[in-house]
Here is the input.
Amino acid sequence: MNHYVLIASKNWREAADANDCFELGAKLAEKGNTVAVFMVQNGVLTACDGAPELLAARDAGVMLLADAFSLRERGISTARINESVRSSTLDFVIDRMAAGDKVIWH
Amino acid sequence: MKVLQIINTAYRATIEEQDDTVVWLTHAMTGAGGDFDVLLAGNAVNYTVERQDAAGLSFGDWRQTQPPRLGHDVAGLIGKHVRVYVVDEDVREIGLTAVTQVDGFTRIARAELADLFDHYDQIWRW
Amino acid sequence: MSMSSKSTLTVVLMDAPFESARTTTAMRLLDIAARRGYDINVFAYEGAVYLPFARQTQHPNAVHGHDTAEENHPLPKDWVTALIAAAERNGGSIDWANCGLCVDERGADEAVEGVRRGTPADLVDFAARSDNTLVIPTS
Here is the structure.
């Protein structure tokens, strides 16, 4: 089993393949890996729209996190984000990098 | 340490640079002793087309003499024993099945990527 | 590796300054690592070699109604300088290598102190000596 962190920096409105990382996360989790998708920049807007790919990743056991600064920067309160998404900080990414997780920017 | 290079963007500044900068970097890092394989995804799967021709550009009196040779550069990686994987769905979606491609790459389904990633210590997505 | 021990991380940057939200995110990541006293390697590729470009200058902003001092416009070269200092202050380091060929073709050969010229071999070496490497691509 491996540990993955997928960084979702874009929203599907600006990049057609932006939600591919949620699909990849679901597949990695289904294979028994530990997976987190960390939304940052405009990627946090996906936490608001409840994209099917996000919900599928949640159902596959993917941890869903959204960068607190990116949320605050966009005036997004936790009430606006999907209940499966937890507010977090970039410390999480550095923690996981230091721990040797496979961290992939999307 | 084995690294999978995912190249997802294509034809970004390839005329100015006269190559794809990440394909070029992979050549250079392999030459420096790094252990890299490549996954071409998205529009970058088109880099496997053998007959790409960017020759003949001129701006005023300036003429380009060394245009990019992207298929040649991908084939060169394969010649250096770098494994080049290409996402099969992307190949089919842009109609590459009907054109001549360079030899030696491996087509892989998107559903198989999770298994592929397990074989690498790190995955660098460009 | 234990998270309580000192880590070595490499980050690859590609974006030119003033172009992308990725630059801010990258600097935030580097800031966290610097505050922890990690040893950090940065390989600046393509437009990112302009992040530490020494000739960046502040300007007034008439739309904001600010003169130069009031506007206090952020300059990424100052961020780089501050991060290098923060890493050293906390017992870590930042080895910032600007891709040399990228510097040459852009004329970006004036960088702030602490930035050096590098090659793809430096990135291979950085990655080999690091606990992890993150590529932040441009698009």
Chain B has five helices and seven strands.
